[in-house]
């Protein structure tokens, strides 16, 4: 992740209440949170590791047919 600027928003007492950041940084944060959530489950962790090692995908048409969604 790049060193992207973040702006802080303060209230009348000087307490930071919000931040303004780029959409790129926000999407990176959301992606990290989703990954952390998925890794909490042993089953999902194994599925992600298997998927990461997979070198061949499945065509959409094949997946639809395999699931009986035709």
Protein topology:
Elements: E1 6-10, E2 16-21, H1 23-39, H2 42-53, H3 60-66
Describe this structure in words.
With 70 residues, the chain is an alpha+beta fold. It has one domain (6-66). It is built from 3 helices and 2 strands; from the N terminus they run ββααα. It has helices at 23-39, 42-53, 60-66, and strands at residues 6-10, 16-21. Strands 1-2 form a two-stranded antiparallel sheet. 0% of the residues are buried. The model has no long low-confidence stretch (mean pLDDT 89).
Structural class: alpha+beta
Mean pLDDT across all residues, rounded? 89
Helix content: 40-55%
What's the number of structural domains?
A: 1
Number of helices: 3
What general form does the structure show?
elongated
Number of strands: 2
Secondary-structure element order, N to C: EEHHH
What is the strand content?
Answer: 15-25%
Q: State the end-to-end distance.
A: 41 Å
Show unreliable segments: none
Radius of gyration: 20 Å
How is the largest sheet built, in terms of strand order? Answer: 1-2
The largest sheet, given as strand count, sense and whether it forms a barrel, is: 2 strands, antiparallel
């Amino acid at each position: 992740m790049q060193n992207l600027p973040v702006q802080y928003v303060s209230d009348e007492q000087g307490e930071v209440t919000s931040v303004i950041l780029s959409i790129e940084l926000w999407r990176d944060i959301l992606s990290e949170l989703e990954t952390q959530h998925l890794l909490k489950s042993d089953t999902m962790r194994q599925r992600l590791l298997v998927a990461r090692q997979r070198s061949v995908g499945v065509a959409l048409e094949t997946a639809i047919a395999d699931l009986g969604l035709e």
